[in-house]
Design a protein that fits this description.
The chain has two domains: about 140 residues, Fructose-1,6-Bisphosphatase, Chain A, domain 1 (2-Layer Sandwich), CATH 3.30.540.10; about 110 residues, D-Maltodextrin-Binding Protein, domain 2, CATH 3.40.190.80. Helix content is about 35%, strand content about 25%. The protein is built from eight helices and 14 strands.
């Protein structure tokens, strides 16, 4: 099978699996039939996370038994041929999910030979499927998307992602830098949705000082394929250890990079 055909097949599979998994998560969310626990500080988890990831992993393995798998909730498996690896967050925005806030999504990416080949982010509460394949553009429910035409931070909205790994002071400093540059800072609890909103022009930028690969790889490809700017996440071992992220409308690239000045980011 040609590489393009294999990539297209993986995209179709990711779209179908994301919809199925999202529908499952939506049913559990609406019924409130789950318990809430913590994996760490501010790190929510429910049994629905594991159940949804198991569903995704099982479906993908049926179609692509030789592919690897990395999930937020499981150790995953190595790729039989060492090339294609699925990177999955079954519920990105678990804190929202656990608190009854209808803003969460399923994120599925496929990395092949060190490059993000496929990215799908599905918001089951809005029935919005964001999808991209490398070199083929990005879409929302089948319609092409583009970033905003913003060129000045003073007229922009920028989401600032939070995690406890870098500490409260570091986060507040980043929010302050965004605000002092003139942008309106936001935080809505799902990094994957925050980044794909940049791809769709709903936000002008997204910044975070450290993200795990399952939280952002699918959305990163969507921004690139939509025509936006995003930092080089996979550089310096990002797939294994995570990295900072800057994503934005192309007209804000230089200004946002200068404003946030995130240490260690590969531009």
């Amino acid at each position: 099978m040609a590489d393009a055909d294999a990539s297209e097949m993986r995209l179709f599979a990711a779209e179908a699996v994301a919809r199925e998994a999202g529908s499952f998560a939506r049913r559990r969310f609406l019924s409130s039939s789950f318990t809430v626990a913590f994996k760490g500080r501010h790190d929510y988890v429910t049994e629905v996370d594991g159940e949804t990831e198991a569903l995704i992993a099982g479906r993908l393995r049926q179609v692509f038994p030789r592919d690897g798998f990395i999930g937020e909730e499981t150790k995953g498996r190595a790729a039989a041929d060492g090339t294609a690896v699925w990177v999955v967050d079954p519920i990105d925005g678990t804190a929202n999910f656990a608190r009854g806030i209808a803003r969460f999504c399923v994120s599925i990416a496929c990395v092949r030979d060190g490059v993000i080949e496929v990215g799908v982010v599905y918001d089951p509460m809005r029935d919005e499927l964001f999808a991209a394949r490398r070199g083929a553009g990005a879409s929302l429910n089948g319609v092409a998307i583009r970033p905003s035409e913003a060129t000045a931070l003073a007229q922009s909205s920028v989401e600032v992602g939070w995690n406890a790994r870098r500490g409260a002071e570091t986060y507040l400093d980043l929010v302050g830098r965004v605000a002092r540059a003139g942008a309106a800072p936001y935080r809505a609890g799902s990094g994957a949705l925050g980044i794909v909103y940049v791809a769709a022009g709903r936000r002008d930028g997204y910044v975070e000082q450290h993200m795990q690969p399952w939280d952002c790889l699918a959305a990163i490809l969507l921004v690139r394929e939509a025509g936006g700017y995003v930092s080089d996440y996979l550089a310096l071992g990002g797939l294994a250890k995570g990295n900072p992220v800057i994503a934005c409308a192309p007209g804000l690239k230089d200004a946002l990079i200068a404003a946030v000045a995130i240490e260690g980011i590969v531009l």
